[in-house]
């Protein structure tokens, strides 16, 4: 019987002991909160993906609570120890919403409490009332003057009241006695220890950066008899609140133990914080996505802008008939690159039609002269293009090779072989030019140009009228060969739709007298201009010297010829060294013959060549002949000077293209 009693008693004692130890040893640890059984209210949640305890999300003016679901037994001499890692991630680095409080509370949701500066702990009626039974350690990031806060980055001990019983700027003491500030809202994870010793009734609070050793000296140390304030069964957990600034409050891990030291957190097991900030996903949507989108849009706009600009920059005009005409078309882009963007430095001359640029074709490194001709008339242009399409096929050593063309809105680009010595007029008239052409060179050039013009008139399948022979259109290659350039270009300025009634073309002083009346460019008008050119070369004078007395070169030489003093007209700069008087006289006389007032009386280019080569002696034509009569000594001369007026200039037409292709 007695034994029975002892068994019952000992069982009771054991059960009681078990009960007390069960309470006194209460402890838990959360290295991350995945699957943790916590009592959550308000905004608080455990993030499903990484197991963070998020007390508040980005909703402003709200609170969140997370408490251990079962209360702890807090008796008169109870001690506790707890530690947790937290992070306050704010939209702005220097501002944040309120903060986090570790709390001993009679409830898990603190009903009636307010967010913002009340930290979800109290409201304005119960703040400071001892019937709250709340003791908290606040991590406050806002200076609330109504609660006598010391600053906007402090740690405080709150007993039923947001007016902290004790508070200090966040930071930690290092072991040599120094102090380091910490910014609670830095977003960096930090660790806090809250330790209470029930025997000497001291509450210590220690803050330090995660990973650092726990400082020896606590940040706050307050003597307080907690059992007088908190309930016997009290919940432990966190309260947090947001104000008007978007902030998230995170707890990464938490360890708690009654009557003993809390187990250390395993930092390696703690979940990592969202990378961008507290508003990871929202930020991705509200900031990241627009940034990415605008970057994409910006790039797209840039690329299409560049493409449009390139299209505009390299824009060309191309019509069906040009495709038919075929092959001699350059892309504007190629010409643009060849001239390095048509820069000023590349200009080698300016003529009546526009600027001439030097360029190097990218594909074959060929040096070219590119003439930019502005045009507005489509009609003349069409004929001209048809003509150059075929002119491109002309090959002669005394013709400046037209390599091709390119057409854009309002302008035409003509690509020629580059002539390194420029145009003849510079040598004849440019006072700055040091080199004076000697007679041998001049005669060589004259013969070359004559042969080039003969080729145009007779050497090819079809007659080509040059229309603008003059010294500035005679280009000199590296070996000082004269080459005719610019043929047909004057056509551009003949806007008449009927090619048979073209307007006067050419340059004053080179225009045959019948041209203004007939308005027709013929072989004979070309010969007239060539005659003026001969006189130009021999006399070293422009066909019309505008300086002093306005004198037509042809008339001036004719006057001298009549006086029998033709040799007085010879260019004074011609030295006597290789001066061949017979040749000079021949050239001058031939010049006069070619500029005969009556077209029928001018020689043709084949005869001109024969005279220059001295295959035929120049007839000793009389004054009468030059005045419009027939040659006295040679009746057959008239047959020589076969009529050219009936020969109309060949006008390339659209039909020419098909002919052209059959020739190729
Ligand atoms: N193929 C070329 N190679 C080298 N230089 C050239 C070439 N074509 C033209 N030039 C230079 O550009 C200058 C201007 O040429 P352009 O033919 O446009 O004018 P112009 O013959 O003086 O007058 P117009 O245009 O009335 O015939 C020439 O004087 C010459 O110096
Ligand atoms: C969480 O803890 C409470 C209190 O101990 C208990 O009633 C509840 O069943 C637990 N929930 C889970 C999912 O474990
Ligand atoms: C914050 O959490 C609350 C409660 O879970 C939810 O209703 C709200 O939509 C969340 N806000 C944001 C911005 O995620
Ligand atoms: C303040 O909080 C207390 C206790 O939670 C509650 O009873 C009271 O209604 C609240 N007062 C206001 C004004 O919300
Ligand atoms: C404290 O709160 C209790 C209960 O809510 C109330 O009866 C009492 O009057 C309050 N005391 C003060 C000083 O406000
Ligand atoms: C730490 O913070 C306090 C309060 O804001 C300030 O007065 C002090 O200068 C700071 N110390 C350092 C080292 O930044
Ligand atoms: C609190 O800090 C003081 C002074 O650093 C120390 O003597 C005491 O042991 C600490 N108490 C606890 C419970 O950590």
Automatic annotation (TrEMBL):
Enzyme class of the recorded protein, top EC level: transferase
PROSITE patterns (alphabetical): LECTIN_LEGUME_BETA (PS00307), PROTEIN_KINASE_ATP (PS00107), PROTEIN_KINASE_DOM (PS50011), PROTEIN_KINASE_ST (PS00108)
Domain Protein kinase residue range list: 342-612
Subcellular location, record wording: Cell membrane
SUPFAM superfamilies: Concanavalin A-like lectins/glucanases, Protein kinase-like (PK-like)
Signal peptide: 1-24
Keyword annotations from UniProtKB, A to Z: ATP-binding, Cell membrane, Glycoprotein, Kinase, Lectin, Membrane, Nucleotide-binding, Receptor, Serine/threonine-protein kinase, Signal, Transferase, Transmembrane, Transmembrane helix
Record-level Gene Ontology MF annotations: ATP binding; carbohydrate binding; protein serine/threonine kinase activity
Superkingdom assignment: Eukaryota
GO cellular component, one term: plasma membrane
Membrane topology note: Single-pass type I membrane protein
Record's catalysed reaction(s): L-threonyl-[protein] + ATP = O-phospho-L-threonyl-[protein] + ADP + H(+); L-seryl-[protein] + ATP = O-phospho-L-seryl-[protein] + ADP + H(+)
CDD domains, per database record: lectin_legume_LecRK_Arcelin_ConA, STKc_IRAK
Enzyme Commission identifier(s): 2.7.11.1
Cross-referenced SMART domains: S_TKc
InterPro entries per the UniProt record, alphabetical: ConA-like_dom_sf, Kinase-like_dom_sf, L-type_Lectin-RKs, Lectin_legB_Mn/Ca_BS, Legume_lectin_dom, Prot_kinase_dom, Protein_kinase_ATP_BS, Ser/Thr_kinase_AS
Entry's transmembrane regions: 284-309
Alphabetical list of Pfam families matching this protein: Lectin_legB, Pkinase
PANTHER family: PTHR27007
Assigned protein family: In the N-terminal section; belongs to the leguminous lectin family. In the C-terminal section; belongs to the protein kinase superfamily. Ser/Thr protein kinase family.
Name of this chain's protein: non-specific serine/threonine protein kinase
């Amino acid at each position: 019987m007695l034994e029975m009693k002892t068994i019952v008693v000992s069982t009771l004692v054991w059960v009681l002991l078990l009960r007390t130890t069960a309470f006194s040893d209460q402890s838990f640890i959360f290295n991350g909160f995945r699957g943790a059984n916590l009592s959550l209210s308000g905004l608080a949640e455990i993030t499903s993906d990484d197991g963070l305890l998020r007390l508040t999300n980005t909703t402003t003016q709200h609170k969140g609570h997370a408490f251990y679901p079962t209360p702890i037994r807090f008796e008169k001499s109870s001690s506790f120890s707890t530690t947790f890692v937290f992070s306050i991630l704010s939209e702005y680095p220097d501002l944040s919403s309120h903060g986090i409080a570790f709390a001993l509370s009679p409830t898990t949701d603190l009903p009636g409490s307010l967010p913002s500066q009340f930290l979800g702990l109290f409201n304005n009626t119960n703040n400071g009332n001892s019937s709250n039974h709340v003791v908290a350690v606040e991590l406050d990031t806002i200076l609330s003057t109504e609660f006598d806060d010391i600053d906007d980055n402090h740690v405080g001990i709150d007993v039923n009241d947001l007016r902290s019983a004790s508070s200090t700027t966040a930071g930690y003491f290092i072991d040599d006695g120094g102090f380091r500030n910490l910014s609670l809202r830095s977003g960096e994870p930090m660790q806090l220890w809250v330790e209470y010793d029930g025997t000497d009734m001291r509450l210590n609070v220690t803050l330090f950066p995660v990973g650092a050793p726990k400082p020896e000296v606590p940040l706050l140390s307050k003597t307080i008899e907690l059992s007088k304030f908190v309930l016997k069964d009290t919940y432990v957990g966190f309260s947090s609140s947001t104000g008007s600034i978007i902030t998230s409050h995170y707890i990464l891990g938490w360890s708690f133990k009654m009557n003993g030291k809390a187990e250390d957190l395993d930092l390696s097991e703690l979940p990592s914080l969202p990378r961008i900030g507290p508003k990871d996903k929202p930020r991705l949507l509200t900031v990241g996505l627009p940034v990415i989108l605008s970057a994409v849009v910006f790039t797209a706009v840039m690329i299409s802008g560049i493409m449009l600009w390139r299209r505009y920059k390299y824009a060309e005009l191309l019509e069906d008939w040009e495709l038919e005409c075929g092959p001699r078309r350059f892309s504007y882009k190629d010409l643009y690159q060849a001239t390095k963007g048509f820069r000023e430095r590349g200009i080698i001359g300016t003529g009546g039609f526009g600027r001439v640029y030097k360029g190097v074709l990218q594909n074959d490194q060929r040096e070219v002269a590119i003439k930019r001709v502005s045009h507005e008339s489509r009609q003349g242009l069409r004929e001209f293009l048809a003509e150059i399409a075929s002119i491109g096929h002309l090959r002669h050593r005394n013709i400046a090779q037209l390599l091709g063309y390119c057409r854009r809105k309002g302008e035409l680009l003509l690509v020629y072989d580059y002539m390194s010595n420029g145009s003849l007029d510079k040598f004849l008239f440019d006072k700055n030019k040091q080199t004076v052409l000697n007679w041998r060179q001049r005669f060589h050039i004259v013969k070359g140009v004559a042969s080039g013009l003969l080729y145009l008139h007779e050497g090819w399948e079809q007659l080509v009228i040059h229309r603008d022979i003059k010294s500035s259109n005679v280009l000199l290659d590296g070996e000082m060969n004269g080459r005719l350039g610019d043929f047909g270009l004057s056509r551009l300025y003949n806007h008449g739709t009927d090619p048979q009634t073209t307007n006067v073309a050419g340059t004053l002083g080179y225009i045959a007298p019948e041209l203004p009346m007939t308005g027709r460019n013929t072989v004979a008008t070309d010969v007239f201009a060539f005659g003026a050119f001969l006189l130009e070369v021999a006399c070293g004078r422009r066909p019309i010297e505008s300086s002093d007395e306005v004198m037509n070169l042809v008339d001036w030489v004719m006057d001298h010829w009549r006086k029998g003093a033709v040799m007085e007209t010879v260019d004074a700069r011609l030295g006597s060294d290789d001066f061949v008087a017979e040749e000079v006289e021949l050239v001058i006389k031939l010049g006069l013959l070619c500029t005969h007032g009556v077209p029928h009386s001018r020689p043709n280019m084949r005869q001109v060549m024969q005279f220059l080569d001295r295959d035929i002696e120049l007839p000793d034509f009389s004054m009468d002949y030059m005045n419009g009569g027939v040659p006295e000594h040679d009746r057959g001369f008239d047959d020589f000077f076969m009529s050219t007026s009936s020969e109309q200039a060949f006008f390339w037409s659209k039909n020419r293209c098909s002919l052209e292709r059959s020739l190729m």
